[in-house]
Amino acid sequence: MSNPSKMKVYQEVLNEIRRFIQERELEDGDRIPSERELSDQLNASRASVREALRAIELLGLIETRHGEGTFLRTYKPFHSVELLSTFVLTEAQTKDELKEVQYMLEQLCLQELKRLNVREIEELESLDGASEQIHNELFILLFNQLGNQLLLKIWHLVAGFQQMTEQEQLDASDVQSIIDRIKRQEYDQAIDTHSRLYT
Amino acid sequence: MSNPSKMKVYQEVLNEIRRFIQERELEDGDRIPSERELSDQLNASRASVREALRAIELLGLIETRHGEGTFLRTYKPFHSVELLSTFVLTEAQTKDELKEVQYMLEQLCLQELKRLNVREIEELESLDGASEQIHNELFILLFNQLGNQLLLKIWHLVAGFQQMTEQEQLDASDVQSIIDRIKRQEYDQAIDTHSRLYT
DNA sequence: ATTGCGTTAGTGGTCTGACCATTTATGAAA
DNA sequence: TTTCATAAATGGTCAGACCACTAACGCAAT
User: What is the average pLDDT value for chain B, to the nearest integer?
Assistant: First the structure.
C-alpha cells in the first residue's frame, strides 16, 4: 500500500474499498473486485485484503459466495448485536444489572402497546398459557408486533443471558395475568403488574 | 480446525476465542494468547487466526500492540466508525429502527434523572459545549451515573451503529439546551426537549 | 440450430513458511 | 548492583501454493 502512515494495511484496504464503492455508487447485491484483483490494484498481499474483507463480512456489510465473488449487502445492525453480545454481556455484569435491563426493555415494550391495533392484540390468543416459556413467547410476540427487529434482538439476547444465570424466572400465572390485562386493553394495569413482578 | 462444518475457519476461531474469554472471565486489559499460540492450539493457520483477530479488532473488542500482544478491551465499540461509515448500505427502515431504539434508551435514561443527587448533576459542568461529540458525552456521563454499565454499553452500541449509518446527528446547540434543563433540574422539560429532537 | 456435458478459467478458503519491526526478557560486562 | 547489548517473543506483511466451488466455454450428439 502506498500510504506509509501507521495505519495497518488491512485498514488502508478498507479505505480503498470504501472509496471504490462510493465512486461507483454500488448498491445492494453489486459485486466487489475479487481478492486477487484488489491485491494487485492496491499493492497489498491477498492475506491483507482478506483481513479487511473478513472483518466487514463479519459485520454483515458484504456477502461472500465461494467460487463466485464478494457482494455488497445492506446492513442489518441486529446481526452485529448478536456478535457483540457475548463480549458485552459476559463482562463481569452483575445479575442485577441484567435483570434491570431486561425489565426496562420490557417496560419500553409495554409502553408502546397503544400503537397496536385490535387485530394485533387478538394474536395474543395464540399464546400457550401452559408453556414454561410463556414469558419469552409473550415478549417475542409483542416486540415483533412493534416491528423493531433491533429492539427484539437486544431484548432476546439479554433475556437469554438472564436465563442462563439461573435466577428464578417469572411465574407463568403472573405472566398470564399480564396477558389478560393486555387483552382487555388495560395497558396501564399491565405495565403495573409487570412492574410489580420485578420488585 | 477440527470442526468440519461449513463454517469458515476464522469463525470457528472466533468462537474459540469467545469461549476462552468466557471461561477465564477475562476483563478489560487482560491478554489473549499470541497469534502463534492460538494457531497451534486450534489447529488453524496463523492467517486464519489473524482474520478472526482483525475482525474483532475492527469491532473494537480487542487492542493489538506490536511486539507485546493482543489484549481484551471493553467498552469501545466501533472505535473505527470512520472506517466504515460511508460504505454502509442501510435501508430506510433499518435507520428508523436504529433511531427509535437510541431514542428509547435515552428516554429511559432521562426518566431516571430524579435518582441523581446535586453533586452528580454538577458534573455536567465538565461537558465541553463546543464538542461535536457533546451528545455522546452527555449520555455516557448520565448512563455512567445511573450505575448500570450494561445499559451504557447497549446504548453505546446502538449509538455506534447510528453513527455508522451516517444519519444526521443531533445539533450541538439542541443538546446543550437539554443539558441546561437538566442543570436547572427541570427534568420533565429536558425529557420533552429531547423527545422533540427525535421527531 | 439446439441441447447436453465435460473442460477450464476464475474465485474464495486455507495453509506454510518466510522476513521485518517492535517490545520485553535475558544475561554478561562494568 | 547497574547498564546495556543480545536474544526471544510477538505482531505485521508478504509470496506462493493447493483445494473446493462456480460459471462460462466449446465440443459433441441430437
Answer: 89
pLDDT tens digits, B149-198: 899 989 999 998 888 887 788 888 999 999 999 999 999 999 999 999 99
Q: Is the ipTM of this complex over 0.90?
A: no
Unique residue bearing C-alpha cell 392484540: A121
Strand C positions with any atom < 7 Å from protein CB?
Answer: 10-18, 21-24
The predicted structure's pLDDT at residue B164: 85
Angle of CA points A62, A66, A69, to nearest 5°: 50
Residues near B177 by beta carbon (within 8 Å), at least 6 away in sequence: B193
Question: Is there a contact between A50 and A64 (Cβ–Cβ < 8 Å)?
Answer: no
Rounded distance between C-alpha atoms, residue B1 and residue B23, angstroms: 20
- CA-to-CA dists, residue B160 to A98, A157, B51, B102, angstroms: 21, 18, 23, 10
Q: What angle do CA A76, A78, A83 make, to 5 degrees?
A: 110
Specify the CATH number for B9-72; select among 3.40.50.720, 2.40.50.90, 1.10.10.10, 3.20.20.70. 1.10.10.10
B88: nearest Cα among B80, B73, B62? B80
Nearest nucleotide (C1') to the CA of residue A64?
C12
Contact A94, A49 (CB under 8 A): no
Q: What is the strand order of the sheet B69-72 is part of?
A: B31-32, B69-72, B62-65
Question: Which residue is closest to B148 within chain A, CA to CA?
Answer: A97
